[in-house]
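call fold target=UDP-N-acetylenolpyruvoylglucosamine reductase
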Amino acid sequence: MFKGMIRVGLNHHMYDKLTEITPKKNVMVDEPLKNHTYTRLGGKADFLVTPETYNQVQEIVKLANREEIAFTLLGNGSNLIVKDGGIRGIVMNLKQLTDISTNGSTIVAQSGARIIDVSREALDKTLSGLEFACGIPGSVGGALFMNAGAYGGEIKDVLVSSRVVDREGNLLTRTADQLDLDYRTSNIPERGYIVLEATFSLSQGSYLDIKAIMDDLTMKRETKQPLEYPSCGSVFKRPPGYFAGKLIQDSELQGSQIGGAQVSLKHAGFIVNKDQATATDYIQLIRHVQKTVSDKFGVQLEREVKIIGEDPIH
């Protein structure tokens, strides 16, 4: 069960400690992370843990600190590439924290809930403000992490506050202002916060009006985005004064392929896993796109997708 873990000194002791905090069914050993990412990419995690409560999250963080073992938070893997060498130490996934509740015009959603489902809850309660999120595939935690947005809306427009766990395992409340939300960024990664829940303030609206907007945005997404293949969503941030997809298209890169990774023929801003791609294929294709666009237009494309993990050992 613990094959190959001697390289980082992991042993049954760590497994026993983790299963003292959360049930055994929530602790997976040598788990392939390609099973947990939208791109279907990624090597193995030494330990993948899926806590059920905020207290379990805190205790796992404190354990990692005490044992001086590497710790990584994995969202739902929608805007992420995990390298083929996997991730050492403890990887935490909050997919079990999915509660969504509404009180008046306020929605509180746990970090493992899909932001799409929060937008649907808003529709059910005739609350306006989250229509833009109806096609964003990420979790609530991931949406805060990168201040996710689409079609002119973004998380910072509706976020009031968030409950987080810090690097020491302390449970804190942070207002939206304290998270420094900006275009596809926040201070959550640099401060090492683990988002547990978010509180959104919305406004009363008309069910039919809200639904019409969401239906329109869903149609745009389905007609323009390559949903038929695994992908990590939009790969690059929008460069000032340009559109990343247009630059890639004008560089004649659509359809370009390395291994099983391909620049989408449907939307040039996406790279899809067309045929059992590896993370290495993906990363090499990203670099090829960046270099080609830079050489042709002098524009540096900055990645929106996050790359984590270790390179494979050859």
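return ok
The chain is about 30% helix and 25% strand. Confidence is low (pLDDT under 50) at residues 1-9.
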